[in-house]
Amino acid sequence: MGPSIDTLDFHGVPALRLATRAGARAVVSLFGGQVLSWAPAQGEERLYLSDRAVFDGHTPIRGGVPVCFPQFAGQGALPKHGFARNREWSVAEQRTGDDFALVTLCLGDDEETRALWPQGFALELSVIVEESRLDMELDVQNTGDTPFDFTTALHTYLRVREVEESRLEGLYGLTYSDTADGGKLKRESGEAVLVEDETDRIYHNSVRPLLVREYDRSLGINNEGFPDVVVWNPWEERCAALSDMPPDGFRRMLCVEAAAAHHPIHLAPGQRWWGRQTLIAL
């Protein structure tokens, strides 16, 4: 079969299904502008989506790749992770070629967003699926008359077989803020990050490629434009407190997020910023 982009109802929310000729596939929800599923050609699902995720068109969807904007986590007065992840996005472009499928979604300010954050903005999220890779590019433009600062992230939930048996490589020597330990600044001394307890870290100025190693498979992660990497797993106690996660869900997921969280991005009127995250199944 050839490449295709089809509309579908995904648990009650409008979405697009992307597929390539080789068999790679993804699902992108218009609610939140959120990639919910991705599998490389002839491969397994590589994103974690909670089987208790809420699809009511109002509540942020637990899993996939939520878009955090204009605030990361609780770093400001806005609701946690901002408002982009629970807004309806529009389709700006969809296109296929011999070996890819691409969709671009957009979100702009309106009366409701300006009541929370009085700024003019335009977001574009481009999602490209190829044989073994997923590219997600976020573009932010200041369309208003005043400058603004923002923090942001592609809050990528990776599906792993067993988080305690997974290794995240590429962060050695970097300074990180340990949110799980009161925000203390620490230095990564291990050749690989191992998740053996609650983990919530913002690694600063990460420019190297990352690699998630599992038993018999690996996943390469390349970030451009995003200066930081967030690594998060709620572990047993915090996971049990999340109503939209199964009690053992923490064992099957590891968030490795492309982020601009340590220092806000400043945009003057008319200026743009972009960041990209690429996942490559190995």
Automatic annotation (TrEMBL):
It catalyses: alpha-D-glucose 6-phosphate = beta-D-glucose 6-phosphate. SUPFAM superfamilies: Galactose mutarotase-like (SSF74650). Keywords: Isomerase. GO terms for biological process: carbohydrate metabolic process. One of its GO terms (molecular function) is glucose-6-phosphate 1-epimerase activity. One of its GO terms (cellular component) is cytoplasm. CDD domains: D-hex-6-P-epi_like. InterPro entries: Aldose_1/G6P_1-epimerase, G6P_1-epimerase, Gal_mutarotase_sf_dom, GH-type_carb-bd. Belongs to the glucose-6-phosphate 1-epimerase family. This is Putative glucose-6-phosphate 1-epimerase. It comes from Azoarcus indigens.
